Amino acid sequence: MNTRYKITRLDKEGNPTLSLEECQRFFATKSDFEYSDSFGASQDGVHMKIKGHFFMWQLDNVKIPFRFFEGEIYVAVSHQVILEKMKEIARLLEANYVEG
User: Fold this and answer.
1) Residue 87: C-alpha distances to residues 6, 38, 44, 93 (Å)
2) What Cα–Cα distance (Å) separates residue 79 from each residue in 38, 57, 64, 99?
3) What is the Cβ-side half-sphere exposure of residue 70, based on CA atoms within 13 angstroms?
4) What is the pTM of this model?
5) Do residues 37 and 52 lie in contact, with contact meaning Cβ atoms separated by under 8 Å?
């Protein structure tokens, strides 16, 4: 089972402050990440495509989506190595990570 986390940085009023532009600049410096404006998934012959802002992390032959949405970055953690990468990204962005 995956646990969803979000990377967030809040202002004094509790509003998220990460911007898409900041995230695009940040992830552009990471050679193991690639930007995509959609994410596709297939299961049991059904293909679903979600439009949005995704920073895809290449882990061996698997791409892990880090999704920017309304000032926060979301990632589903299914393995310890993904958790460690998520913590690293949060630290480098001077942000927090929370389950949810």
Assistant:
1) 10, 24, 33, 10
2) 23, 14, 11, 15
3) 2
4) 0.91
5) yes
